[in-house]
Write a structure and sequence with these properties.
CATH architecture: Up-down Bundle
Shape: globular
Strand content: under 5%
Distance between the termini: 24 Å
CATH class: Mainly Alpha
CATH superfamily: MFS general substrate transporter like domains
């Protein structure tokens, strides 16, 4: 049992180790170049290919990679292929110079997003290995812990490397780290699934079987509309704050080392504690009730940034805010993953719903800089928490109709 949970932690590491390179870390790089907050927000669209992973999910589910799949399973061969292109994209980003020409940066980031999406599709069945009805909370907590550990390491290490060297060296370092993670992936336990190997199986048949049919079945379920709304809106306020809170801290005067130590390192460690609390809350209070309670606490943590805008740079105050935000943030992510495990087992439905989740994040993050510039920091921190209200109403309605 312990080995299974540790494997889930490592799967989480695989998720967290790469995605910050086209979002959080890239934001710091662009800020160093003097790019405006509004434009940094719009740069979130670089991550758009990640959302299209549901389009190649049926291909992963139904077709082998020539030569490579003869040496290993279908899932594992697609995983290795994804990592190779992921590393290539990071190297292209490292060798680009956004101050003179953004083409290579966009090309490399797009390749990273495509490969990262492919990797995430392949890893979803690995999360469900050994899943039981009463274990979804703890599995979600373990995956979220791993995600945060991977995110901690890649964010803090690249910030340190960029501080002492430059951004090119930081991204090349990240490519080496992800290569090591790829090697470790070769030994983790695989899902027990028999794959069809049919030479006459067409692309059209693959999409009918593994895309359109599962989607049709999902949409015919009683609560599918509510599920879609929750997936799209549950972390809307969180997305806005994720994008702008870092930029705000830079403008207030915190250095990259202070941000790495307080927000990225300490904050990520605290998120891990929050992940455990989220798993415990699900077991104690039930899934939907926990989602509502923790989401309310997370909104309060956003309001606390108003104090930092009022009093200016203050390390102690920032640490207190990050403590509350990270604890509740780790818990809501654990709840969100557990919600996914409860409603989704099919790889295609997972990819489609996760694409909806990513699209929601892309929209809210891309406009966050525009809203911050228009409203000013104080009003921004007062209004963003209000985005949780529709989620709380929707979850209350679901709680009456479902026994989660």
């Amino acid at each position: 049992m312990l080995s299974q949970y540790l494997s889930k932690v490592f799967i989480g590491v695989c998720y967290g180790i790469s995605i910050p390179l086209t979002i959080a870390i890239l934001d710091y790089w662009l800020k160093d170049l003097g790019i405006s907050n509004a434009l940094i927000g719009l740069f979130s669209f670089i991550h758009w290919p990640f959302m299209l992973k549901f389009l190649w999910g049926p291909i992963i589910e139904n077709f082998d990679i020539p030569l490579l799949s003869k040496k290993m399973s279908r899932y594992k061969s697609w995983m290795i292929c994804s990592y190779v292109f992921l590393i290539l994209g990071i190297v292209i980003m490292a060798c680009s110079d956004p101050s003179t020409n953004v083409f290579w940066l966009i090309l490399g980031a797009s390749l990273v997003a495509i490969a990262d999406g492919c990797k995430n599709i392949v890893l979803y069945p690995y999360q469900l290995v050994g899943k039981q009805e009463d274990s979804v909370g703890f599995i979600a907590g373990c995956v979220n812990i791993g995600n945060r550990l991977g995110s901690i390491f890649i964010k803090v290490s690249t910030l340190y490397v960029s501080h002492f060297f430059d951004w090119k060296t930081a991204y090349l370092f990240a490519a080496i780290v992800i290569f090591i993670v790829m090697i470790i992936n070769l030994v983790i336990e695989e899902p027990h699934k028999k794959f069809e190997k049919r030479e006459d199986f067409s692309l059209k048949q693959a999409y009918l079987k593994s895309f359109f049919v599962p989607i049709k079945q999902f949409l015919e379920t009683k609560h599918s509309t509510k599920f879609l709304a929750i997936v799209g809106l549950y972390k809307s306020a969180d997305f806005m704050m994720q994008k702008m809170s870092k930029i705000f801290c830079v403008e207030v005067g915190f250095s990259k080392i202070e941000i790495a130590n307080i927000i990225q390192f300490y904050g990520s460690i605290t998120v891990i504690v929050g992940s455990f609390l989220g798993g415990y809350a699900i077991k104690k209070f039930g899934l939907i009730r926990s989602m509502r309670l923790i989401l309310s606490l997370h909104a309060i943590s956003f309001l606390a940034y108003f104090l930092l805008a009022e009093f200016g740079k203050e390390n102690t105050l920032l640490t207190m805010i990050i403590t509350l935000e990270a604890l509740s943030g780790g818990a809501i992510t654990a709840c969100f993953l557990a919600f996914f495990y409860t409603i989704v087992s099919d790889i295609t439905i997972y990819a489609v719903l996760w694409a909806l989740y990513e699209f929601s994040g892309l929209v809210f993050m891309s406009v966050s800089g525009i809203f911050a510039n228009f409203l000013g920091w104080k009003l921004f921190f007062c209004l963003v928490p209000m985005l949780v209200i529709p989620n709380l109403v929707l979850l209350k309605r679901i709680n009456r109709e479902m026994k989660y």
